[in-house]
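=== RUN LOG ===
request id: a7f3
mode: sequence -> structure
chains: 1
length: 229
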Amino acid sequence: MIPPKQDGEFVAAMEDVLEVYKRGRNREYPLVCMDEQPTQLLKETRTPLPAEPGEPAKHDYEYERNGTAANFMFTAPLENWRRVSVRERKTKIDWAQEIRQLVDTDFPEASKIVLVMDNLNTHTPGALYEAFAPQEARRILERREIHYTPKHGSWLNMAEIELSVFTRQCLDRRMPDLATLRSEAVAWNASRNDSGIGVDWHFTTSDARVKVKNHAQRTWLCFGHSESG
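=== RESULT ===
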C-alpha cells in the first residue's frame, strides 16, 4: 500500500486525506470522493444463445471493438450516495461539466463540497475556466474544498471502492455501445442508492504512521544500518 519510495509529499497527502475522512457527517460540508475509469465498448459478432433453465446465455468469444467510454464516479460515503456518469471522453471540459453538476444538482444546498480526488492534469481549477466564463468558474471553485490523494495512492480514494463494485456488478458483460452502458449504469446507480449501502472505511492516520514507520525501518536495515546507527 505504501510505495517503496514513499516520501514526504506522499505522506503529507495521505495524512491530509485521512484527516478529512475523520470528519463527521455534515450536510453543509458533505464529503464527496471522485474517480474515473475507461470502459471498452464491445459488440457481439454473433447473436448470443438465450438462457435456458439452469443454463446461462452463451456468448461467442469473438467480439467487435466499438470505441471506449469514460465512467465518472462520485460518492458521498457518509450519505450512502453515489452517482456514476458515462461520457464519451474524460477531457478537462467533461470533468468541469461533471463538477458543475455536483455543486448545482447533486448538492445545491451545501455551502462547500469537500472533494477528494486524484491529481490528474484534467482535475484543475483551470479546467473550469476553459469550460465556463470566469465568473461561473469562480462560483463553482468557491463551492469546493479540494483534497488530492497522493501520487500512487489511489487506494486512498473511496470512489475507487465504488468503481470496483460498479465494475463487478455492471460491467461483468459486454457493453455494445454508449447508450447501453448509460442505461445499465443508471439502473445500477438507482439500485445501489436504494440499498442504503455506504463505504465502511477503517484505515486511519495512526494506521498509516505505523506502516510508514515499519517501511522506513525495513528500508534502513536493507542498507546495512541498525536503529542504533
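=== NOTES ===
The two ends are 27 Å apart (CA to CA).
Strands lie at 31-44, 63-76, 81-87, 113-117, 144-148.
=== END ===
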